[in-house]
Design a protein that fits this description.
This protein has 168 residues and is an all-beta fold. It is 0% helix and 49% strand. The strands form five sheets. A four-stranded antiparallel sheet has the order 3-4-5-6, with no helix packed on it. Strands 7-8-9-10 form a four-stranded antiparallel sheet, with no helix packed on it. Strands 11-12-13-14 form a four-stranded antiparallel sheet, with no helix packed on it. The mean pLDDT is 93.
Length: 168
């Protein structure tokens, strides 16, 4: 279930129904009135924020879509999944532009760089950096014993404008 809250009145003002299972992530587009949600049903869903209408069902992943990011420039939507892939989407067409298959394990976290046209994805095997718009592989970030030092799962990540990345 996805709910829209009015923070001044502390009340739910809209519901978005359509996911067949748990919702894992959501992102608001920075310039369009659309919301993108993703979840265990292996889809990302694009919603008109005002009318609550489904605009697109972005399908193609075969596992839980664990993270979703929106940006103004193409690709406007990027998803990562527990199927070990990352997809770059054409928001207007509702179709996959590129599928990145470099990860060997579930991709549970993703971060857009705030000033560069890049993004990073994390799985237990490593963290990878990609260049937009086509998703060209740039580099791996790997520490002793893997990303977490013990092969653990990365569930969250963020990057700031000073090129500092955090993972959890």
């Amino acid at each position: 279930m996805v709910k829209c809250w009015d923070l001044e009145t502390n009340k739910v003002i809209r519901h978005y129904h359509g996911h067949l299972s748990g919702v894992y992530a959501l992102a608001i587009h920075p310039t369009l009135d659309v919301l993108v949600t993703s979840g265990r049903d292996a889809t990302a869903r694009v919603w008109d924020m005002r009318t609550k209408q489904a605009v697109h069902v972005l399908s193609g992943h075969t596992g839980t879509v664990s993270a979703v990011k929106c940006q103004e420039a193409d690709p406007q939507v990027i998803t990562s999944s527990m199927d070990s892939t990352v997809r770059l989407w054409d928001l207007a067409a509702g179709k996959t532009m590129t599928t990145l298959t470099h990860h060997k394990k579930s991709v549970r976290a993703m971060a857009l760089h705030p000033t560069e046209f890049t993004f990073a994805t994390a799985s237990p095997d490593n963290i990878k950096q990609w260049k937009c718009p086509e998703g060209q592989f740039m580099r791996n970030f790997e520490g002793p014993g893997g990303v977490t030092g013990g092969g653990g799962i990365v569930n969250a990540m963020a990057v700031n404008a000073d090129n500092v990345m955090f993972t959890g």
